[in-house]
């Protein structure tokens, strides 16, 4: 563990003019694949559903055909081994959903039954991993309000779990921190999160309550049953043999790449699928499960109302024209197909609007088509006919922060063997006196100060937060005043370098979130209450990190401790 990054070398702060090694891969096999041939896998129909008060998973390697023209693809998957199904009902690479109740805890175990070392199709960078090319796994419930020991975080368990070992966790599902919402659980192995998630270790975790029952009708008056559809969007590349393709760096001695972008879109684990809908209202629960790509989704021809995000339902809906989702962000939306009976629509994707930036130097290659939506002519069950004007959820409205912390996002030595991204000018394994230590039960403001050219989706474990606003500032002047060889250290208020007033959050940042777009050219203020679950006493250590998982792995992550 200590070998990792103790040798952090000095280097110049990245300049936006450097050339970077991401490039489309010549032998990728995916772009020629026919589109809209297979159906989107749905819970119970291609996505295996797990319920109960305790679930025992094994992480296993399976093979699934993700497109009729591709050979079967080896995948890593969460297998609920106590149901004996062997994941036979799983059609795609995103093949698992846990459905749990808010207020009812859940005990889960994960037993490592994967290969002991990485296969050739997963290019591990042994500079970043604690135990070389050994497959070490650790599951994190993204959005979980849990004790540190159940969090699946590398500050607590840096070596993760090896072959045959079992991680046992207790998910509180406690209220009000874990209301009805779409969470997901995914691998968080140190230095290998990007690879383990890419290989398939990601799944949905849906929380229900007495309002958001999942049925139809329901007390909220929103679509349910077969008219509520989770949609997990992920980009991938394929080799001709069907394996997923993950490019490697062309920098000598380096395997890691700065961002993974695919040339094929998967929805619920199938390549460019189609979805049959009836001409009525639907509820879509959308998760950006990409490693690095910021999505800007649209369904031309229909109206979309967003009713919630990562932290559950809002108090009122917000009309949206597009869904700009960075990795790990979720949108809970109601889509009206009543005026488009008989039509074939497309869920499309485009580059996000400025200042949101999906890599300034080597922009994500465009990937404009996501999924086809085939609208039928008849309605089986009419369901709701309006979007409710009020919802039983929450707007984020925290007040009285007792402390403000300033956290810098730096990119150092880009394009060289010493390339690293960091928080507060410190690599993950380096000690730092700048790490946050909020007192349990207090509200704090955290200000993420972006020194890079890209948007970074910053994710806090344990807490959801309010987005307070974004303030443009003179990055170069701040950097010139305070920058060192590893970037600008934490703790320095950038307000004197502001070039304008604070911009309010986007309307879609109305509620509590667990991931926020930290855009270039500004500093982003969030506000959170650092409670601990019932019966859990301080201190408890968690992490916060960029959810571009390439950045998280190298090394844009820091521990923090609730005291
Ligand atoms: Cu990042």
Classify the secondary structure makeup into a structural class: mainly beta
How far is it from the N-terminal to the C-terminal residue, by CA?
25 Å
Helix % is under 10%
- Give the distinct bound molecules: copper (II) ion
Mean of the pLDDT scores?
93
Query: How many DSSP helices?
Result: 4
What oligomerization state is this entry in?
single chain
Number of strands: 32
Could you list the spans in which at least 5 consecutive residues all have pLDDT below 50? 1-26
Query: What general outline do the C-alpha atoms trace?
Result: globular
Please describe the biggest sheet, giving its number of strands, its sense, and whether it closes into a barrel. Answer: 8 strands, mixed
The radius of gyration over CA amounts to: 22 Å
Beta content comes to 25-35%
Q: Concise description?
A:
4% of the residues lie in helices and 35% in strands. It has 4 helices and 32 strands. Strands 11, 12, 13, 14, 16, 18, 19 and 21 form an 8-stranded mixed β-sheet that branches. A 6-stranded mixed β-sheet has the order 1-2-5-10-9-7. A 5-stranded mixed β-sheet has the order 15-23-22-17-20, with no helix packed on it.
Record the SSE blueprint.
Blueprint: H1 3-6, E1 42-43, E2 46-50, E3 54-64, E4 73-80, E5 96-101, E6 106-112, E7 139-142, E8 166-171, E9 181-187, H2 193-198, E10 202-208, E11 228-238, E12 244-245, E13 264-267, E14 270-271, E15 274-277, E16 281-288, E17 295-298, E18 303-309, E19 312-320, E20 323-325, E21 330-336, E22 344-349, E23 369-375, E24 403-412, E25 420-423, E26 443-450, E27 456-460, E28 465-472, H3 475-482, E29 515-518, E30 522-529, E31 540-546, H4 549-553, E32 557-562
Parallel strand pairs: 1-2, 2-5, 3-6, 5-10, 11-16, 15-23, 24-26
Antiparallel strand pairs: 3-4, 6-8, 7-9, 9-10, 11-12, 11-13, 13-14, 16-21, 17-20, 17-22, 18-19, 18-21, 22-23, 24-25, 26-30, 27-29, 27-31, 28-30, 31-32
The protein binds copper (II) ion.
């Amino acid at each position: 563990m200590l070998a990792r990054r103790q040798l952090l070398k000095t280097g110049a702060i990245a300049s936006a003019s450097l050339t970077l090694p991401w490039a489309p891969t010549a032998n990728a096999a995916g772009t020629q694949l026919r589109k809209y041939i297979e159906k989107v896998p749905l819970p119970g129909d291609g996505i295996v559903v797990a319920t109960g008060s305790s679930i025992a998973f094994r992480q296993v390697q399976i093979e699934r055909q993700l497109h009729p023209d591709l050979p079967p693809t080896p995948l890593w998957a969460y297998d609920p081994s106590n149901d004996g199904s062997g994941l036979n009902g799983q059609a795609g690479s995103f093949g698992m959903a846990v459905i749990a109740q808010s207020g009812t805890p859940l005990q889960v175990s994960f037993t490592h039954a994967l290969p002991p070392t990485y296969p050739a199709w997963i290019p591990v960078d042994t500079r970043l991993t604690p135990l070389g090319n050994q497959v070490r796994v650790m599951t994190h419930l993204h959005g979980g309000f849990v004790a540190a020991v159940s969090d699946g975080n590398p500050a607590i368990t840096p070596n993760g779990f090896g072959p045959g070992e079992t991680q046992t966790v207790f998910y509180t599902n406690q209220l009000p921190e874990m209301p009805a919402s779409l969470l997901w659980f995914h691998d968080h192995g140190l230095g290998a999160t990007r690879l383990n998630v890419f290989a398939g270790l990601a799944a949905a975790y849906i929380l229900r309550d007495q309002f958001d029952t999942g049925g139809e009708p329901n007390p909220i008056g929103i679509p349910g049953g077969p008219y509520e559809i989770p949609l997990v969007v992920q980009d991938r590349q394929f080799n001709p043999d069907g394996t997923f393709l993950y490019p490697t760096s062309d920098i000598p001695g380096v395997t890691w790449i700065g961002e993974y972008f695919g040339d094929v879109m998967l929805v619920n684990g199938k390549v460019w699928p189609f979805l049959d809908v009836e001409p009525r209202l639907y509820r879509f629960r959308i998760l950006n499960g990409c490693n690095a790509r910021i999505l800007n989704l649209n369904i031309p021809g229909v109206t979309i109302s967003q009713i919630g995000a990562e932290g559950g339902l809002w108090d009122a809906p917000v009309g949206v024209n597009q869904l700009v989702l960075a990795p790990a962000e979720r949108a809970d939306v109601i889509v009206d197909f009543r005026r488009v009976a008989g039509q074939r629509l497309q869920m499309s994707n485009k580059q996000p609007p400025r200042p949101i930036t999906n890599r300034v130097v080597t922009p994500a290659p465009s990937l404009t088509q996501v999924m086809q939506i085939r609208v039928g002519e008849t309605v089986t069950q009419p369901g709701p006919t309006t979007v409710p004007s009020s919802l039983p959820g929450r707007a984020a409205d925290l007040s009285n922060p007792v402390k403000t912390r300033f956290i810098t996002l730096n990119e150092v030595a880009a394009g060289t063997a010493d390339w690293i991204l960091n928080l507060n000018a410190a690599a993950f394994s380096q000690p730092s006196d700048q790490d946050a230590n909020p007192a349990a039960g207090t509200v704090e403001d955290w200000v993420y100060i972006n020194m890079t050219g890209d948007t970074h989706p910053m994710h806090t474990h344990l807490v959801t937060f309010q987005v307070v606003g974004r303030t443009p500032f003179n990055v170069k002047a701040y950097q010139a005043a305070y920058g060192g060889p590893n970037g600008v250290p934490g703790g320095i208020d950038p307000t004197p370098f502001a070039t304008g007033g604070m911009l309010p959050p986007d309307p879609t940042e109305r509620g509590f979130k667990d991931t926020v777009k930290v855009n270039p050219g500004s500093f982003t203020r969030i506000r959170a209450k650092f409670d601990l679950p019932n019966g859990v006493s301080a201190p408890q250590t968690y992490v916060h990190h960029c959810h571009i998982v390439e950045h998280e792995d190298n090394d844009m992550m820091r521990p923090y401790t609730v005291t």
